[in-house]
Specification:
Helix content is 31%, strand content 34%. With 295 residues, the protein is of the alpha+beta class. Helix 1 (14-30) packs across helix 5. The longest helix is centred in the N-terminal third of the chain and has 17 residues, at 14-30.
């Protein structure tokens, strides 16, 4: 008899989510699983509950929430001796990682995926003492994620990010930042607008922002958007939809296992849509750091 812990962020997507989770729990119980449910209340609850779950005799975790909640579960797993597998039920405003992995949203399909027990090892990103499942970023607009109030996220969903982002653009005036990158593949100091260090191809709802990314290759994908005039920037953003921005002369795109990013400026790092400290920082791939259920 398998024991499953359901870790749920009730603020992700409101009542609809609770109904879906309850439906899943009924399916699991009727099929003979022993189910425990934990609702998060504040930051790091999901991480702490994951560590506790790994230390006890649970067989796997179902996490229900956005990228931030999934990030906490991944962080809890990374810090535990016993790395139990996780089924990701996307329910937040942005679910880049679940979308990239094509994980089922329909509860019956999701239950089927659990029953089939197909587990895939995926990489995690590590930055200083934090972990990310999808992306770490710095520069233009990266502070939007955690500036959007939770209620706005719940009501407007992904649009909340875009609205907030558009409001930010005039304030930011596209001021470039002087950043030094050091890695085996790419070492230089330059004026940039934005850098993204990604595990999957899908970032902020753009499905091909890191077009060659692979969650199991042991590498992180780095996208750097250099100082640009407004018209160049507009072209880069248009090209992002097709994944062709990486050919623009003002964009650098490469893979690395480890990269150091340094600056004398006051630059915040965004980790999976949450505040992740400030530069300087070392980003590295943590191969096979996380086991997930896949269809």
């Amino acid at each position: 008899m398998e024991k499953v812990k359901v870790i749920c962020n009730p603020s992700s997507g409101r009542q609809v989510v609770q109904r879906r989770v309850d439906h899943l729990i009924n399916l699991l119980i009727n099929d003979g699983y022993v189910v425990g449910k934990f609702n998060t209340m504040e930051k790091d609850d999901a991480m702490r509950e994951t560590m506790k779950t790994c230390n006890e005799d649970w067989d796997f975790i179902v996490v229900c929430g956005g990228d931030g909640t999934v990030n906490e579960v991944a962080k809890g797993i990374a810090q535990s001796q016993r790395k139990i597998p996780v089924a990701i039920l996307s329910a937040g405003t942005v679910n880049d990682f679940a979308n990239h992995m094509k994980l089922p949203k329909n509860i019956d399909d999701f239950f089927e995926m659990i029953k089939n027990e197909k587990i895939k090892k995926v990489d995690l990103g590590k930055v200083n003492d934090e972990y990310f499942i999808n992306v770490a970023a710095g520069g233009l607009l990266t502070n939007v994620g955690y500036q959007v109030p939770a209620e706005t996220k719940a009501i407007f969903g992904r649009m909340a990010y875009y609205i907030e982002g558009l409001k930010e653009i005039p304030k930011q005036k596209f001021e470039p930042i002087r950043v030094k990158f050091e890695s085996e593949e790419y070492t230089r100091e330059e004026d940039i607008l934005l850098f993204l260090i990604s595990n999957s191809a899908s970032i902020g709802g753009f499905k091909r922002l890191a077009p060659d990314a692979n969650v199991s290759d042991g590498y992180l994908d780095i996208v750097i958007i250099k100082k640009s005039e407004v018209q160049d920037l507009a072209q880069i953003f248009i090209n992002i939809f097709r994944g062709e921005h990486v050919y623009h002369p003002n964009v650098s795109y490469f893979k690395s296992k480890k990269i150091k990013v340094d600056t004398t400026e006051d630059i915040v790092i965004d980790i999976d849509g949450e505040y992740g400290g400030k530069l300087p920082a070392v980003f590295e791939a943590e191969p096979d750091g996380f086991n997930i259920f896949v269809p």
